Structures are given as C-alpha cells and as structure tokens.
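The methods section describes the discrete structure representation at length, but only in general terms. Since the whole study asks how a given chain folds, the encoding of that fold should be made plain. An entry of this sort, consisting of the sequence and the corresponding backbone structure tokens, reads as follows:

. . .
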Amino acid sequence: MRFLLVALALTLPTLATAERADRFQKTVISYDGEMHYDTIKGISKFSDHVEASKGTLLISSDFLTAAQSPEGDYLYTVTSLKDNLARFKQKQDASNDKWVNGEGKTMAYREKDDLLTVDGNAEVKIIENGNVTGVATGAKITYDARTEQIFVKSAGDAVDPAKKTRAMLVLMPKADPLKN
C-alpha cells in the first residue's frame, strides 16, 4: 500500500512526459578510460567517468555496459565505484523548466521502454525552474519516462530481515506569495 501511495503522490504533480524527442535521438557515449566492443555479442563496455547522452537524458557513472538486443534496442547498465554514485537527469516536456534527477549505486536504462531503474541508496528529485518540488528515496526506484511515473520500493536488510530500509517521499510546498 505504501508503495502505491508513493507512486501516486509522485505522479500527481508531474503530468507531463519526458522529452518526446529524446526517443529518436542518437546516443553519445564519452569516457576517459577504455572501451571494449564485442562485435559478436553486440556488447560494449566503457570505463572511467562515463557519460551517455540521448537528447536531454544524461547518465553518468564510473562504468557503463551497452548491450544491443536483436531488435536493435539497447540496455545500458551503469555501476559506480565504492564511494561514487551513478547519476541521471532528463528534461520533461512541460512548458516550464522541469527536470527529473536521480542517483544510486547502479542504474539500468532500457531504451525500448524508456525505463530507468536506480538501485542502492536510490534518490530521485523533481526540479522545476531550479527549485526542488519533490524528493523520493528508497532501496530501488524505477522511473518510467514515457508515463512520467516514479515507483519507489523499500527493502529489508539481508543480514537482519527485521531491519528495514524505509522509503520516503517529500513534497515541497508552493512558494508563499506574500513573501515576495
């Protein structure tokens, strides 16, 4: 039930969709380290400060693997070193300056479905005109760019199942018009 409420609460203030044009943009991957491309399997591996951009979508981390399906779509998996986080941001189709930003230990972006999954200390922020309007944290966050829905999941501790990692949603109030 809590999972459903968090997903609903994040969906209500964000009725726009991700930049529609992003789906039809090329993906550009830049990196400071090495790249290995397996031509038979269709898998590329990149290391050292990797950034992948596709229109307004930007994903960055320490390592990235791009695997191409037989249909030609890609699955991008990004991982970070011990003390770093993988990050993403994407502009929305809203008329105002609206972005969704997120970070976590690992991420997977499934190009075919415009679905991004953030794992490990996951956090997603909604930013409008430079102001944070919502923040969600949890063990796993899934961001559906096509429908503009964010799903947050809490998790139990592997060592102690009685100890849970709580998920949280913070919705910011509107600005007080009398304080301007």
